[in-house]
Amino acid sequence: MRLDKFLKVSRIIKRRSVAKEISDQGRITINGNNAKSSSNVSVDDQLIIKFGNKTETVKILRIVETTKKDEAEQMYEIIDESYKEDFRKGVN
Questions:
Q1: Sorted alphabetically, which keywords does the UniProt record give (predicted)?
Q2: What is residue 53's three-state secondary structure?
Q3: What is the per-residue pLDDT for 52?
Q4: Tens digit of pLDDT for each residue in 41-73?
Q5: What CA–CA distance (Å, rounded) separates 2 from 84?
Q6: Strand partners, 83
Q7: pLDDT band at 13, cuts 50/70/90?
């Protein structure tokens, strides 16, 4: 399955167009390699997704073409979630 479609179906990213934009900007890696929206993903792949100040590492558990909202979270497992320090915090 294409990366952008997986991100949308799994509801990690709500819109496929946004998933395409983020992946084409080089903000997503698959198993340590830079990914494009057209990159194929498969079960057991590890994705690192950089959202603004948050970086999320997920492992793909299953791939399905369509899913209901409550079943989408069963498609992946969050391995790590980290936030950048906001350099403006503590500045008076």
A1: Protein biosynthesis, RNA-binding, rRNA-binding, tRNA-binding
A2: coil
A3: 87
A4: 999 999 999 998 999 999 999 999 988 988 898
A5: 29
A6: 54
A7: very high
Place of tokens 């690192």: 48
Quick check: 69 and 53 in contact, CB under 8 A? no
Query: How many residues in total does the chain contain?
Result: 92
Strand 33-34 and strand 28-30: pairing? antiparallel
> Would you state the torsion angle of the CA atoms of residues 52, 27, 22, 73, taken in this order, to the nearest 10 degrees?
-80
Cα–chain center distance at 54:
11
Structural domain of 7: 3-83
Average pLDDT score, the chain: 90
Residue 20 backbone phi and psi in degrees, to 5? -65, -45
Task: State the pTM of this model.
Answer: 0.84
- Number of domains the chain is built from: 1
88 occurs within a structural domain: no
Asked if the structure places residue 90 within a domain, the reply is no
